[in-house]
Design a protein that fits this description.
This protein is α/β, with parallel strands linked by helices. It has a 5-stranded parallel sheet with strand order 2-3-1-4-5, with helices on both faces. The protein is built from 8 helices and 5 strands; from the N terminus they run βαβααβααβααβα. Helix 1 packs across helix 8 and helix 3 crosses helix 5. The chain starts with a strand and ends with a helix. Bound molecules: thymidine-5'-diphosphate. The site of thymidine-5'-diphosphate has 15 residues, from helix 4.
Length: 216
């Protein structure tokens, strides 16, 4: 059995990546592929607990390095429990956020820098990089707006996962700029889809990127 194919989705909160991930999963299944879907933080029992801790806006006073360590604890578990076994089975793995999020949010947003993130990735994730990363970067102001709308909606429905979403605009600007720097550094792995072309057009571009690499 040949090894599977690992795809991650990245972008700011509100970039529409979860929608695109679901649409790609449906498309791949229609091509007869076995698909494993997961997300970070979360996706495993330990990871879901780490996620609850990290994203709850009631969690106060988290030192940036604590946050960084928890993100990598979650990731190490996700790799061991879900991603690596699925790749060994030959599945296509779709993961909503991965180490690029850590580089963008903790490295850029929290200003810890890229070096520590890439070093931890090498040590704790055995340097497992995706075969393809879809980076959705719609216009900065629109992404921010969408994230805020969702934040307000979640507050009304009582869903409390907005500790990151309450960060200020300068934080998101640093996240955004770090994502762009990652795309510029790794053009072979990262396909950046800019602008706001609508769900179907973005889906078509995601499918093209996957097709080109999978040869289907
Ligand atoms: P999530 O529900 O995945 O957000 P979205 O649906 O907007 O993608 O929430 C994950 C949050 O955690 C998001 O604000 C980004 C943040 N995050 C980090 O700061 N570092 C990381 O390594 C990861 C994986 C996520």
């Amino acid at each position: 059995m040949s090894r599977g194919f690992f795809v991650t989705f990245e972008g700011l909160d509100g970039s529409g990546k979860s929608t695109q991930l679901r649409k790609l999963a449906q498309w791949l299944e229609a091509q007869g592929k076995h698909v494993t879907i997961t997300r970070q933080p979360g996706g495993t029992r330990i990871g879901d607990r780490i996620r609850a801790l990290l994203l709850d806006s009631g969690t106060e006073n988290v030192a940036p390095r604590t946050e960084l360590g928890l993100m990598f604890s979650d990731r190490a578990q996700g790799i061991a429990e879900i991603i690596e076994p699925a790749l060994e089975r030959g599945d296509v793995v779709l993961c909503d956020r991965y180490t690029d999020s850590t580089e963008a949010y903790q490295g850029g947003g929290r200003q810890l820098g890229s070096e520590i993130v890439l070093q931890l990735h090498a040590d704790l994730c055995q340097n497992l990089w995706p075969d393809l990363t879809i980076l959705l970067l719609p216009d900065f102001e629109r992404s921010l707006e969408r994230a805020r709308n969702r934040n307000a909606r979640n507050a009304r429905t009582g869903q409390d996962e907005n500790r990151f979403e309450s960060e200020d605009e300068r934080f998101y600007r640093r996240v955004y700029d770090t994502y762009r720097a990652i795309a510029a550094r790794e053009p072979g792995r990262v396909v950046m889809i800019e602008g706001d072309e609508g769900i179907e057009e973005v889906h078509r571009r995601v499918v093209d990127a996957v097709r080109a690499r999978l040869g289907i």
